[in-house]
Design brief:
There is one protein chain. The protein is built from three helices and four strands. The chain is an alpha+beta fold. The protein has one domain: 2-Layer Sandwich (GTP Cyclohydrolase I, domain 2), CATH 3.30.1130.10. The longest helix is centred in the middle third of the chain and has 12 residues. One of its GO terms (molecular function) is dihydroneopterin aldolase activity. It comes from Hydromonas duriensis.
């Protein structure tokens, strides 16, 4: 699912990637701009799809040390969501994206977050954005 314009060059780069993902990761997070949101953690759901260089994600010896471990992605979400109160979902997603992009094998990621208990008649409200590594070559 592309929700952000991607240049043809970046699309060609992503074709040479393998995706790893963490889907529907539920956490309690201290987040929100309103006073009533600052009194207790809120239920949130995170989704991350990371695009990893195929050369960094095609194991030769079937070993975990040859790929990006799912634990790294999950732990990154947990760490960034546990750093104290955050006002905006956008800020939290940016922090997660920044931390993931420190791994040179990760070329891009699509990250979304959702608050699931804001409105009684809505499953979730949230944000999502693409993040690209400074190591991403356009070709």
């Amino acid at each position: 699912m592309l929700t952000h314009p991607v240049t043809e060059e970046l699309a060609r780069t992503l074709v040479d990637c393998r995706c790893i993902f963490v889907r529907n990761y539920h956490l309690q997070v201290s987040i929100g701009v309103y006073d009533h949101e600052k009194t207790a953690p809120q239920s949130m759901v995170f989704n991350v799809t990371a695009f990893v260089k195929r050369t960094s994600a095609s194991p030769q010896h079937d070993g975990l040390d040859e790929v990006i471990d799912y634990d790294f992605v999950r732990n990154t979400i947990t760490e960034q969501a546990s750093t104290g109160h955050v006002q905006l979902q956008e800020t939290l997603c940016d922090r997660i994206g920044e931390a993931l992009m420190k791994k040179t094998a990760i070329l891009a990621a699509y990250i979304s977050s959702e608050k699931t208990e804001i409105y009684p008649d809505v499953d979730a409200i949230g944000v999502g954005a693409w993040y690209f590594s400074p190591h991403t070559s356009p070709v």
